[in-house]
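QUALITY CONTROL LOG
STEP: pairwise intake check
CHECKER ROLE: data steward
CRITERIA: each record must contain a sequence immediately followed by its C-alpha cells, with no blank fields

ENTRY 1 OF 2
RESULT FIELD BELOW
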Amino acid sequence: MMHDSKYDFGNGSINHFFHMINQLGSYLFIHSDDYGRSCAIKQKKRISFMYPSMTHATGVLIRFILLFKTEHGDYANDIMIANSLEDVQLASVSNDDLTKSKTLLSSLNFSIYDRLIDEMGIFKRDKRHEMIAISANGQKFVTSIETCSEDVCQYQYFKMKIPVKKSLFLKAICVSLHSDVQFSVNEIYEIIMGSFVLFMDNGQMIQRSVCQQLFGNENIYDQLNRIFVSKTRSSQSDQTAFICSFSTQYNDFIDNIKPTLYLHMIDSRGNILLASNIRKEESSLPAYTMSLNILFIYERCHITLSSSSILENHEQLYKIYKDPFSEKYLLVVDIHFDDILYDVQNRKNGAKISNDMIVDKIIGILKCNFLSLSCVQKLVLRFKSIDLAIDLNLRLSHDIDIYLNACKLVEGVVLPSNIKMLNMVYSHVLTDLELPCTLEEIIIKHSEIAEGKILEIDKSCKIINIEQVTGKVSIPHLEQNFWFKLSNSYSIVVKNNTSSLIEELEMHNASFLGNIIIIPPSIKTLTLSNVKLGSKAILKIFNDITSIKLHNFTGSVQLVDVNTGKDITIEIKSGSVELLKTNDSAKPNKFVLRSASLPENFIFNENITEIEMSDIKMQCGDFVEFSKNVQSVYLKNICGTVLFTCVGCLEKVVWLDCKRFNSNIFREFDTMILNVEDSLFDKNRMLLSSKYFCNNTIILKPAVKIFSFTNIMVPDQYILPIHGDFEKITLSGCIGKFTIPHIFKDGAATVQISGEKNILRIVKTSTGSYNIKLKT
C-alpha cells in the first residue's frame, strides 16, 4: 500500500472523498468475528482503484479515527477509533442524496491518516497497539490493530473531526426509541446550537429525546438562555454570537422537529390526547408530556382525542386558545366517539349508557366553547357501532368530515349543512337520507341501504366512491346520462371536473339498459367490470377518451373517430378491452382486446403503438390492419387476417393462432403460418412452438441472433433458412429442412432433421468457432 498523506479530502471535497470510500467498499468483503471486530477477506486478484493512494489495496480494512472537540477547542487529545461509520451512527453523512449543511460537512475535515508516520502519535500511546472502538449497540470494546498479519490484512485509516465533545457523542449514538438516555442542560444547549448530532443516523431519535426533556422541565428554557448569555459575554471577540439571540436558535430547533414528532398527552383520568403538525411525516415519533400548553409548538395543529378526553379537557383547551394571539393558529380537531357508549365512571364493568345520554353527550361536546373558536378550521367526527338518530346540523362555522364504522343511520338523523366528506364502512342506512349540497366527497364501502329507502347524493358532489354496496343510491351524475340497473353488490366511482361534468367513471356489477349508450365526451377515463349490455345495445365511445378498461364485459362496443368519421364495432363476450393513451412520446399508446368478435375490418389508428389481442374471431374476408407506427404486437388465438402495412418490405401476413410478432425482425415475409400455438419474436430472439409450419421463403434480418424452434414441421417442398450472424440455435423435436451457414465446408448447408425427440444445439463461441450438440 502506498502511504501518501497529500491526498487530503477535507474542506469541501466530501463527495469526492466518499466516492473513493464507496469504490473501495464495493470491492471488499468485510465481516465481524465473534468479538465484534471487523475482518477483511483476502482478495484473490489485485484490485486497482482510481486513486493513487489505494492502487495496491488488497484485503483492506478501513477504520475511522474520530477526533473530538475538547474544552479548549482543539482536537488532538480526545480520540476514538471506529470500525465503520455505521457503528457510530454516521453512515448517512456519506449519503449524496441527503441534504446537509455544506459548512457542517466541510468542518469534519476528512483526510487519509498514515499510521506508519503517525504524525499525531495516536498509535504510540499504547505499547500494545490497542485502541478503544465502539460497536453498534454502544458497547465499548478493545480492538487490536495487529489482529491480521501484514501479508493477509492491511489497514487504511481516515481521520475526521467531530465538532462535539466525546462524552456527548457517546451518549448520542446510544439514543433509540426505547432508550433512557438523559442529556445534561449543557449538552442540550450544545445540540440546539451546534446541531451536528442531528445529522447522525439516529438524529430523529435524538431530537425526540431532547424534546422529551424540554417538555418535562418548565424551567429548562431559562437555564439554556443563561448558558447562552454566559458564553456570549465571555467571548466578546465572537461578534456573530450577538447577531442571533438564543430564542431564535431555540425556535428554529423546534420548527425543524415539528414534522417528525407528535405529542402524546395523558390527563389525570387516563384520557389520551394526540397532537401533531397538520402535515406530519409518516415516520413521526411520539414525545410524551403531561402539559397541554405544549400544544403551542404547533401553529397548524391536528388534535386527536376521544369523547371522554374532550369532555375532561375542553375548558383547558378553550383557555389555551381563546386569547387574541391564538388567531394565528389553525386547528383540526379529530374526535373519536368510540367510547361514547360507555359511562366514563364505569369503564371497568363496561356499563352502557342510554340512547338519550349518548345524544346529550354528543351534542354537549359539539357545543362546547373550545369547538366554537375561530382557530378551529375543521372538525373530524368518527363514530363506531352507534345508532345515529341525531340532528348534527348545529350551524357550526367550520368544515366537518364524518367517518362511520358499523353504524346505523336511522330516522331522525340530520347531517351537518357544512359537511365536506362522508366515509361510511360496514354501515346501514335505515331511512331516506338526502345528503347536503356542501358534500364534496363520499365513500361508501361494504354497506347497505334498506329496501325501499334511498340515499340521495347531490349533483355538486365531486368524488363518489361506492364499493360493494346493496340498495338504492341516487346519483344524478349517472342518472342524467345513463339508464342502468345495479346488481345486489355493486361498486361505482365517479369523479367530476370543475364544471360538474363526469371526468372519471368506474362501475362494477351493473347492466346498461336501452339500445344506444353514449359515453359523454367529458369522460376521459372509463372502467367497466362485470357489466352487460342488451343483445341489440351498442356502447359508443369517442376517440378523445384517454383510458378505457372493460373487464368481463359482454356487449357491442363502437369506437367512434370524430376526426375521420369512421366507426369500429367490436362484439365482446365476457371479454376485455383496454385503451391507454398518453401524451408522453416515450410511453406507448396501448390497445388490448380479449375474447371478442370483429364483424368488420379493424384498422388501427397511427397513434396506437402497442397492441395485444387474444381469442379474436373475424368474419371471412375481414382483416385487422396495423399502422407503420406499431412497435409491439402480441397475438394469441387469432382466427382471421392480419395486415402489416408500410413496415419495410413486409406487405401482407396471414396469421392463425399466433402469439407474438415484432415487425422489426423481418426483411421479407411472404408467407402463411398455420396452427402456431406459441411464438415469440423480439429484437434478437425468435422462438416458435407449433405443430405445423408452412413457408415459401423467410429471410430474417441480421438482428436475430438466437433461434429456438420447438416441434416445428417444415413440409418437404420448403426450407427454413437461418442467416449467418446467429449466436445460438436450438432445434427441438423439429422435422424438415433447415439451412445453417458456417457449419460445413461448403458454407451454408441444408440439414434434414427428422424425429420428434431429436435436439440440435449450435452455439457460437467467443473465438468464432461453434459448439455442436446432437441428442437423439
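ENTRY 2 OF 2
RESULT FIELD BELOW
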Amino acid sequence: MGQISKIVKTFGRKFKAYSLLWLLLLTSYVPVHSQSLSEQVIGRYDINKKRLLAISTALNLYMILEGQIDLDSAMLMSCQAYNFSRLLPYSEGYDNGSVSVGRTMIDSGNINEAKRLLDKQKNDDKIRLALELGTYYLFKPGNNKTDLDQSLLYIRQAQKLAASSGKTFWKNESLTLLAKFYLQSGDILRSQKLFSEVVGSNKIENNNKGIALAMANQGINLPVGTPEKLSLLEKAQLFCKQQGLKDKEIEVLSHISIEYFISNFDVAKKKLLELVALQNASGYRHTHVSLNTISFIDDMRGDYIPALTSALQAVKTMEQTGDTKFAPLFYSRLALLYLHMDKKEGLDIYLKALENKSKQTRLVWYKSFVNAAQATITFYGGKRGLDLIMPIIKEYPPKSLWERMAVAYLQGDCYASLRQDKLAIHFFDLFLKLSDQMPAHFVYLELPSCYIGIAKFYANTGNKARTQYYLDKASPFMSSAGKLFISWQYSLVQFKLDSLNGNYVSAIKNYQRYKEKSDSNLSLASMRQMNFMQVQFETKNKEQSIKSLTQRGELQQAKLNESNFLRNVTMGGIVALLVIVGLLYKQFRLKQRNNEQLQIQRNEIVNKNQVLENLLEEKQWLLKEVHHRVKNNLHTVMSLLESQSAYLADDALSAIQNSQHRIHAMSLIHQKLYTSDDVTTIEMSTYIQELVSYLRESFTTGQRITFDLNVEPVELDVAQAIPLGLILNEAITNSLKYAFPDNRKGLISIIFAQLDDTKFKLSVEDDGVGLVAGFEQDKISSLGMKLMRGLSTELHADFRVESLSGTGIYLSFNTDILLKSSYQISAQN
C-alpha cells in the first residue's frame, strides 16, 4: 500500500482539489442545470423505461442504505425524486401512461376522494381504481396492519368486479396483486401459488407476454437469498428475451445480479456488465447505478484500477443524464476508493459532505459520516475519532439498526485505538448483539470487515479465543464472495493468531498469503495505468472546471443584466406607483364628495318617504272611515226601506225587499273593507259565506234548502268584488224565490274558483223547476236578469244561463282585462 501511496501522491492532491470543486458545484450551479437536463432525458423515455428507472433507483437506495429504510420507502423516494406516480413501479400490467383520475387523486393524497370516485366508476375504470387503491395501501411505507386490511378489502373488490366482467386480464391483475399481498403478509407459499396460477392462466390464453411478466413477477417477489429465486429469475429472463421484452429483461437481470452480489462477486460482475450492455442497447441511459455497483465489487476485490474506471464512468453518466438527485452516493464511491488506497484526500471529501448535513438529508450523509469517522480513526487515532463522532451522535442519535450497529463499532474502534480495552469490549459486544439482527442479504461488506477488525483487536490483546470466534464469524465471507480487500486483512489476523498459538508453519503461510494479496496491485502495468488515469482525470476535471467557471461567469453576467433590468423596472414602477397614488387620491376625493351629495339626497328621500308613509297611513284610515260611513249609510237606507215595506204589499214589497238584498250585498263589502288592514281587496270566500247566510235568513228557508259552497280563498279588487257580489245576490235570490215552489226541498250549489293567475269562474246552480222550455237568455227582461247582464258587461265577463235539471247561472271573467280597462279609464280622466 505504501508504494501505491507514492505512485498517486501527485494524483491525490489534485483529486482532492477537483473533488472538493465537484462538491461545490454540486451545491451551487449544477443542480439547477442538471434538473432541466434530467427532465429532457427522462422525457424521451416511454412508460416502461420510466418504471425501470424508478425501480432501479429504489433497489440501489435499498441496498446501499442496508435496511435503513424498507423497500416501499425506497420506491416512494425514487418516484418522488423523478416526479413519477407512486403507483408506477407496481402498475405494469394495466398502466400504459394514460391519464387516470383516480391515480392523480391518490398521488395528491386525496384518498377519500378516490374512494368516493370508486363508487361512481364503472366497468374497467372501476376495476383499475380498486386495484390502485389496493396497491396504495399494500405498498404504503411501514408495517401497519390496518393498511394491509384496507389493501385486502380493495383487492377482494377488484377480484369480484373482475369476475363479473368475465375478462381474464383483470382476473390475472387481481390475482397478481393478491399474491403480492400474501408476500407482504409473510405467507410466501400462498403468494407463490397465486403467481403460478397467473402463469397457468396466461398459458391457457396463449398470452406469451403475460407468461413472461407473470414468471418475472414470481421470481422478483421472493425474498433475497431464497433458494429457488435465482432459477425462477433466470427462466423469466430467458422468456423475456424470447418475447423481446427488453425493459423487463433488464429489471429481471438487475435482480439476478443482486442474488449473485451477496454470494459470488465474480458472477455478479459478469451479470452487471451484461446488464450495462443490455441497457445501452435498449436506449436506457441511466447506467450509472450498475457502473457504481461494478466499482464497488472491484474495490472489494482490491482491483483499484477497474474500480476507479467504473466509478469515474458512473459519475460521467450521472452528469450526462442530469441525474444528480442522489449524486453524493456516487461521489462517496470515489472518496471511499481513495481511502482504500490510504489517501487522506478521501476523508476531506467526506468531511466536506458533512458541512451541509440536516435531518432531511440524513439518509444520504450518514454513511459519509461513518466512513469519515473510520478514516479519522485510521489516520489520526481514536481521540480524533471521538471528537468527530460524539457531537454528531448527540445531535443526530443513531436510529436504524444499521446506524446503531455502525456507531457501536466506531466507538469500540476508538477505544481500542486508545487502549481502553473495557470500553472497547463493551461497544464491540453491543455491535455483535446488533449485527446478529442484520438481514442476511445486507451482510456483504460492513459485517465481515468489522468482524476482522474486532478479531485484530483481540489478537493484539492476546485473547486467542475471542480472536478465533470473530475470525470464524468472518470466515464464510472469505470464500463465498472473493472479497480481496478484506481477505488480506483476514490473513493478517490469522497470522497473528497462529503466532499466539505457536503454530509458526501456518503463521508463515498466512503471512505469505497476506503479502501476496496486498502486493497484487503493485505491478508495473498497474502503475502505468494509474498514471494514465491520473492524466485523464486531471484533463477531464480541468475541462469541467473551465466549463463550470465559464457557466458561472455567464450566470453572473446574466444576474448582472437581470439586476440592471430589475433596477430600471423598479424605478419605472416607483414612478408609475406615484402617478397611480395621485390618481387614486384624486379619485378618492371625488368619490368622497359624491358620497356626501348622495348622503344628502338619501336623507331627503328618507324624509320624503316618511312623509309619504304617513300620508298613506292617513289615507288608509280615511278610506276605512269612508267605507264605514258608506256601510252605515247603506244600512240606514235598508232601515228606511224596511220601514217603508210595512206599508207596501205585493210587487212593491218585493221590489223593496230585492233592493234591500242588493244594498246588503254592497254593505257587506264596505264592512269587510273597513274591518280589514287592506282597504283595496276583498277576501271572497268569507264574503260569499256571509252573503249566503244573510239571504238564507232573509228568506227563512230553514232546513228546506241546502247550500253547497265550493269557494276558493281568492282576493279581488273592490271594483271586481261589488259587481260580482250583486250578480251572486241576484242569482241566489232568483233560486230562492222561483226554483222551489210549494215549499219544495232543494239544493243550491255555488262554485267560485281561480282557473289561472287572472281567470276566475262563478257558477250558481239549483235543482229546482228550472226555466220555461225554449227560453232565450237575451229575451229575459226581468230586472234581476238585466242587472246581471249589465254587471257582467262591466266585468268583461262571459255570462250565460242554462236550464237542464234546474237553473244554472255561469260567469267567467279575466281580472287582467278588467285592470287594463280601469287603467285606460284612469288615463283618460
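INTAKE CHECK: passed for both entries
DESCRIPTIVE NOTE, ENTRY 2: The first helix runs from residue 2 to 7.
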